[in-house]
Recover the amino acids of this structure.
């Protein structure tokens, strides 16, 4: 019997994920069910959430992301995406959502401004992993 070599995980993401303190209101599909979740991390192409309920892999979602900006004001921006994966951990669901389009100044001005400020202030890595472009 041949032993199969365990394949190692290869991270194919193009964008860095940043730890992010915020909340998200998710509207799921056509039935417009809303769920309040906590943001675990965010990149320019997706978001990781902690949710009290399952969303369902492959579901189309609208996400309203709320956070406190550097001036102490609550800001919000909205985007859309699809549930890429979810995993149950005790009573919480860990959920990964891929955005329909990358975050941009036109559609998510508050969120992008805040992320750029965080990246520059805390010297976090630039958002794009392979450094072909320097966005900020």
């Amino acid at each position: 019997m041949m032993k199969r070599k365990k394949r190692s995980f290869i991270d194919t993401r193009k964008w860095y994920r940043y730890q992010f303190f915020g909340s998200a209101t998710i509207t799921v599909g056509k039935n417009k069910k809303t769920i309040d979740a906590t943001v675990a991390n965010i990149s320019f192409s997706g978001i990781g959430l902690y949710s009290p309920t399952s969303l369902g892999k492959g579901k189309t979602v609208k996400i309203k992301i709320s956070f406190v900006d550097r001036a102490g004001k609550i800001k919000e921006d909205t985007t859309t995406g699809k549930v890429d994966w979810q995993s149950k951990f005790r009573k919480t669901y860990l959920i990964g959502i891929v955005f329909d389009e990358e975050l941009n100044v036109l559609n998510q001005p508050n969120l992008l401004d805040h992320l750029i400020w965080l990246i520059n202030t805390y010297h976090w890595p630039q958002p794009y992993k392979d450094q072909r472009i320097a966005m900020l």
Observations:
- The mean pLDDT is 89.
- The longest strand covers residues 74-89.
- DSSP finds one helix and seven strands in the chain.
- Helices lie at 109-121.
